[in-house]
């Protein structure tokens, strides 16, 4: 077995300082189509949160269909809370399946030394996923 195969656990095998990008994307082809993306990332020693929502009456939705977007610099406390939601979750080899077609969410974690293969993320539980979604909604609120 390759050292790059298998599964890694966030918090045990992947530390907070190793995370470079995390994407949560939900996309539905129902009418009207719905697309929501949350992104947490590290850049130049700073942590950020970005979100975008796409809406329209056609499919697929593109960047031209972004109706709401924004970003903010995260405090250490906000980044640590984000990392707390990921802790205990697992990362495994990415598996692209274009015939899947479900709405998601699709979760991808990029981290130092992932070697471009281990990015498919799963939260430790459904309840933590739901708490994470609420945290993202809270981060989008002015003054949060």
Keywords:
alpha+beta; 144 residues; five-stranded antiparallel sheet; single chain; 2 helices
Describe this protein's structure.
By secondary structure, the protein is an alpha+beta fold. Helix content is about 15%, strand content about 40%. The chain has one domain. The chain has helices at about 75-85, 125-140; strands at about 5-10, 20-30, 35-45, 45-55, 65-75, 90-95, 105-110, 120. The chain has a 5-stranded antiparallel sheet with strand order 5-4-3-2-7, covered by helices on one side. Strands 1-6-8 form a 3-stranded antiparallel sheet, with no helix packed on it. The longest helix is centred in the C-terminal third of the chain and has 14 residues, at about 125-140. It starts with 6 loop residues before the first strand and ends in a 5-residue tail after the last helix.
- Biggest beta-sheet profile: 5 strands, antiparallel
Nearest-angstrom radius of gyration? 16 Å
Tell me the structural class.
alpha+beta
Proportion in helices: 10-25%
Which sequence of SSEs, written as H and E, runs from N to C? EEEEEHEEEH
**Sheet with most strands: strand arrangement:** 5-4-3-2-7
The rough form would be described as globular
Residue windows where pLDDT falls under 50 for at least 5 positions: none
By DSSP, the count of extended strands is 8
Question: What proportion of the residues form beta strands (DSSP E)?
Answer: 35-45%
For the termini, the CA-CA separation is 45 Å
When the domains are counted, the total is 1
Average pLDDT figure:
89
What is the tally of helical segments?
A: 2
């Amino acid at each position: 077995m390759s050292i790059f195969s298998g599964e890694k656990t966030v918090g045990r095998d992947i530390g907070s300082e190793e995370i470079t990008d995390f994407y949560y994307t939900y996309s539905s082809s129902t009418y009207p189509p719905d697309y929501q993306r949350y992104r947490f990332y590290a850049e130049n020693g700073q942590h950020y949160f970005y979100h975008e929502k796409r809406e329209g009456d056609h499919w697929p939705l593109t960047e031209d269909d972004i109706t709401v977007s924004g970003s903010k610099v995260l405090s250490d406390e906000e980044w640590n809370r984000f990392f707390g939601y990921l802790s205990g979750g697992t990362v495994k080899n990415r598996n692209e399946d274009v015939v899947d077609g479900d709405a998601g969410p699709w979760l991808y974690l990029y981290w130092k030394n992932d070697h471009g293969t281990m990015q498919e993320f799963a939260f430790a539980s459904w309840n933590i996923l739901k708490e994470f979604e609420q945290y993202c909604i809270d981060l989008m609120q002015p003054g949060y």
